[in-house]
Specification:
The complex is a heterodimer of chains A (367) and B (179). With 367 residues, chain A is of the alpha/beta class. Chain A folds into two domains: 180 residues, 3-Layer(aba) Sandwich (Rossmann fold), CATH 3.40.50; 104 residues, Rossmann fold (3-Layer(aba) Sandwich). Helix content of chain A is 35%, strand content 22%. The termini of chain A are far apart. Chain B has one domain: Pyruvate-ferredoxin Oxidoreductase, domain 3. Strand 9 of chain A pairs antiparallel with strand 2 of chain B, so a sheet runs across the interface.
Chain lengths: 367, 179
């Protein structure tokens, strides 16, 4: 088999990327604009020896994914805003129990049921901080149908390696658009950190990630959302143990920021630099294409969490970062926290992309 | 060259499928780039439906249709909502069975729904007649690519009917309507 050309919708590409990555469990509840992922998995998973379950709601959906993951299966769900909100409690449980899982959020306009059929990027902060307590996650943002495939497959590897929920934070534009895609003949499949029988199940390795003891492999492991010791037993009143555990859950991701970073740099000597992720990337690319005579900088980010703040320093002449987002400036604020020069947020709500003309006007006003 | 094609009609005519077929023809068989989008909402069920496809020789960056070069309009409401603002240099192909208005740009009248019904016996293939006419007038994809993409996309057992519908559209565009 060799790589092949297809004309696919983004959501189908995500589902196919998951299948190629070896996903064998999908638990979900259909919601626009993510439904095609569930529909495609329902059709394809059983034929590959996998399991598709339509759960009663999103609380149960993410719970089923966490359970499936503990059997060793690569497991995922897909949802959008209202469903994402319902998943928040168990996302914290997945973070606390260090359960690998992949959650696709095809973002639509919120808050509440908002705009079911229109694009948004309003859940970027919820994805990072939506469950209670301190923790860290990984979030990837595709900007094409090709990346819906590639980054979904990658999400499974990262979820396994770091034992953490990994989010594919896409949007209605990319999810519903159909484009050319080259489907590779195989995708990289790295496993979970190996568990050594006889060792403590939550004792971390040098990378701060413990080996994964799958259910049914002959040893007992206690899994709890309560603060636990390295045996996995609840120990919820020891201040030092709680502090060390939560610090490790955050550090295992944040200390890997440079390794996880996935971004492209265009015109690193530019003075005005766009920073974008997801669908707005396409508009910025068009602006650069339409104005080859202007030095327009661009930091195009695929890994949004942990945010690759070290990339900002690559633009040595930057005097302004311009951040177009389909929200009121969620990641712009994160960038502001790291940037040594002013950050201009260019928010857009309502479901349509910024036009190239709108973004060029912002750049030109500062030229 | 980037060409933006917008289809509009009412829910059930195959407006979205038409642009999926066109994009598929461009990508899979003409080896170009295409980006297909649609207005996807509850208001489109039975009401005015719109979909679009951008076709280009190079990778498509901005994926939304801003100023369409080519319109295919299959309902009066679709004309009013999505076709009336066509730029003077655009090309519009309209189903003259269903659209009463005429635009300020170059336009071609195709009685697709009437032809589909009388010549082919099934008005459901009117959108394929329009696709054939579109390609006949604009060559936005090749006829061969269009035919293959149609055959990929239509239900089994309807291949001959859809091929005839496409050929009818091409023939009308070529001014040599087949008997």
């Amino acid at each position: 088999m060799t790589s092949r050309l297809e004309f696919w919708q983004g959501n189908i590409a995500s589902a196919e990327g998951a299948l190629a990555a070896g996903c064998r469990f999908f638990g979900g509840y259909p919601i626009t604009p993510s439904t095609e992922i569930a529909e495609h998995m329902a059709a394809k998973l059983p034929k590959r020896g996998g399991v598709f379950i339509q759960m009663e709601d999103e609380l149960a959906s993410i719970a089923s994914v966490i359970g499936a993951s503990w059997t060793g299966a690569r497991a995922m769900t897909a949802t959008s805003g209202p469903g994402f909100s319902l998943m928040m409690e168990n996302i914290g449980y997945a973070a606390m129990t260090e359960t690998p899982c992949v959650i696709v959020n095809v973002q639509r306009g919120g808050p509440s049921t908002g705009q079911p059929t229109m694009a948004a990027q309003g859940d970027m902060m919820q994805c990072r901080f939506g469950s209670h307590g301190d923790y860290a996650i990984i979030a990837l943002c595709p900007a094409s149908v090709q990346e819906m495939y590639d980054l979904t497959a990658k999400a499974f590897n990262l979820a396994d390696k770091y034992r953490v929920p990994v989010f594919l934070m896409t949007d209605e534009v990319i999810g519903h658009m159909r484009e050319r895609i080259i489907v590779p003949d195989a995708v990289e499949h790295t496993g979970r950190p190996a568990f050594v029988p006889g060792t403590l199940p939550f004792k971390p390795g040098a990378d701060l990630v413990p080996g994964f003891p799958e259910f049914g492999k002959g040893y007992g492991t206690h899994v709890t959302g309560l603060t636990h010791d390295e045996r996995g037993y609840p120990c919820a009143t020891n201040p030092g143990l709680h502090a060390a555990l939560v610090k490790r859950l955050v550090d295992k991701i944040e200390s890997a920021t440079q390794k996880l970073a996935d971004f492209d740099v265009v015109n690193p000597d530019a003075e005005q630099v766009f920073i974008a992720y997801g669908a707005p990337v396409r508009t910025v690319q068009q602006v650069i294409h339409d104005h080859p005579d202007r030095k327009i900088g661009f930091l195009r980010v695929r890994t949004v969490w942990p945010f690759p703040s070290h990339a900002l320093a690559l633009f040595k002449n930057a005097r302004r970062f311009i951040v177009p987002e389909l929200n009121l400036g969620q990641i712009a604020r994160e960038i502001e926290r790291h940037a040594k020069v002013p950050v201009t947020s260019v928010p857009k709500l309502g479901g349509e992309l910024h036009t190239p003309g709108e973004l060029y006007a912002v750049w030109e006003a500062g030229a | 060259m980037r060409r933006e094609v917008r289809f509009s009609g009412f829910g059930g005519q195959g407006i979205i499928l038409s642009t999926v077929i066109l994009g598929r023809a461009a990508v899979m068989y003409d080896h170009k780039y295409a980006a297909q989008t649609q207005v996807y909402g509850p208001e489109a069920r039975g009401g005015a439906s719109m979909s679009a496809v951008i076709i280009d020789d190079e990778a498509i960056l901005y994926p939304e249709v801003s100023v369409p070069d080519i319109f295919v309009i299959m309902s009066q409401e679709g004309f009013e909502k999505y076709g009336a603002t066509a730029r003077p240099d655009a090309i519009m192909i309209l189903d003259s069975t269903l659209v009463h208005s005429r635009p300020g740009c170059t336009f071609y009248e195709i009685p697709a729904t009437a032809e589909a019904k009388t010549t082919l016996g099934r008005d459901i293939v009117a959108n394929i007649v329009m696709l054939g006419a579109l390609v006949g007038y604009t060559h936005v994809v090749s006829e061969e690519a269009l035919k293959k993409a149609i055959l990929d996309s239509v239900p089994k057992g309807t291949e001959a009917l859809n091929t005839k519908a496409m050929e009818l559209g091409i023939a009308i565009a070529g001014g040599k309507k087949q008997p």
